[in-house]
Amino acid sequence: MTLVFSGIQPTGNLHLGNYLGAIRQWVTLQQQYPCLFCVVDLHAITVPQDPAALRQHIYETAATYIACGINPEKSPIYAQSTVAGHAELAWILSCHAPLGWLNRMTQFKEKAGKDKEKAVLGLYSYPVLMAADILLFQATHIPVGEDQKQHLELARDIAGAFNRHYAQEFFTLPEPLILPQAARIMSLRDGTKKMSKSDPSDYSRITLTDDADTIRLKLRKAKTDPLPLPETVAELEERLEAKNLLTLYAAFKEVTLADAVTAQAGNTFAVFKDTLADVMIEHLAPISTEIKRLLGDVAFLDTVLQKGQQAASARAAGVLNGVKEIIGLPTL
Ligand code: TYM
User: Which residue in 39, 177, 205, 302 could disulfide with 15, CB within 3.0 to 4.6 Å?
Assistant: First the structure.
């Protein structure tokens, strides 16, 4: 049976990459398939968090899912830490995940930086928790941006290792769903770096709560090159910032990159950036207004998260019991 599962870390600054790479796919998928959407707060604490900010960011992330079009009545939304099975299954899976596999994870290498001795264990075992998130529900399809591809391959490998070890086809191997046209939205300041919540420059990203003036300003300041916009897609390979802005234009207009290039060919960046700002503001303004409205109704968000927790827990219980039975642990 198909089940779509995905999640975002509640670390603030949800941006165009999160929206176009992940959430927008979710909105389409929920029309066709059962879905579960998680606010992955246990992942967020792999780096230091301020407790008050974390609490607020959990609400903000849930509000963003809803404001972008996720219907919580149809697709449960919940906080990862409220379903104990995530952490429990992560432990069990960590006993089936060879260190050699974890040592290959590029995100750990990037996040741990030079001083690996000081990196915490949770940051290292993060991909095992992510595998547990997915396998806890036997989720089949995982809509994410390209940066999560390696983690999803690991989730498949761990599921396969478990199945082989116990000679049972217990876990379903999850399939990543990565939209080629929005797989990797890049920083507005540097076309070689992905747009990220943790980039120290606010000008590197447009967030889903930016107002119209801020969006316009950030786009005006976005890095470009001195040439007019190109006539062909092939020319974009050498012009990464132009490619990123045209990718954003194509995503918001819902046209192909080739059509976006044709529409803007020969324009100056000044003219193009103004057009892009108009398109983006038209699309994002209702979302940011709705996020703000929802954040004013914490009681509603609490109800959504509680109902989500119940739905997710119910589904997780069966899978977790199945795992325990296979291993030889007592079941409830
Ligand atoms: P996170 O919180 O870093 O990002 C959330 C989602 O946004 C996508 N994304 C991007 N897509 C395109 N361009 C970008 N610049 C960009 N930046 C982020 C991410 O690929 C992701 O889909 N480990 C995950 C969260 C997670 C998860 C899971 C996802 C935990 N457990 C289980 C799916 C299934 C993460 O840190 O995403």
Answer: 205
